Structures are given as structure tokens and as C-alpha cells.
Amino acid sequence: MQLTTSHGTTVKMHVENLIKTVSKIIVKK
């Protein structure tokens, strides 16, 4: 369970960073 939770949290952080990056690109365009 701990492994799944840690992995899920890491994925969530990656997704949030990805959204921030995409938003910056859209704003630039």
C-alpha cells in the first residue's frame, strides 16, 4: 500500500508540473 501511495503521489506531482509547463507554453503563444 505504501509503495502504491508513494508512486501515486509522485505521478500526481509530475502531472501538476506537466500542466504548469503546458500552461506556460499556451500563455507564450
From TrEMBL:
- Protein name in UniProt: Uncharacterized protein
